[in-house]
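Many introductory courses stop at the sequence. We go one step further.
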Amino acid sequence: MRLICAIFCATAAVGTSFWLPSVASATDVHCTADSDTDITRVDGRTACRAASGTEGRSHSAGFDGVGYANATSGAVAVGLGAAGGVGASEGVGGIPIAIGLGPDAIALTSLADVEGRPPAGVGLSIAMDGSRAQVSSTEDTVVCLGSSALAWNGTTGAGCLATPLGVVRSTPPDRADPKTVPEQQLPPE
């Protein structure tokens, strides 16, 4: 797992070094909404929309991309699209975060309180350079497609990471097969 983390961090660092100089000349728009507000801004191919219910707060931004955030029932939603990417988040409770970086990258995070489960927590999806990442708490799924995507549902612990070497998935503890999960030893007293 450490090898995968090292590869992902190195890839992110190299990708960021190529991407950051182009952001300086990017068209940017920012939207923030709370207390039953809906704000949309469009500037050419750059756009953002932030919508909220009475108890929600949403923040979105587009840097030559599209950001969308919708928050209700106490949610704090964040959506960021940059360099041609789309980041869309919506939450009925919880903290949904979606970041799309690079051409044709799409990151979607959708959190909602589902009966019989703990309240919605944090959901994070990041997609870069044509990849797709999605977190959906109502469908209880995380999806990573392409060569650079990350999706994580903090409530269930489910997550995935897509790299050029393949996709790594984490299984939530309540879904793990007890035959394959090693028993953790207690530390000596």
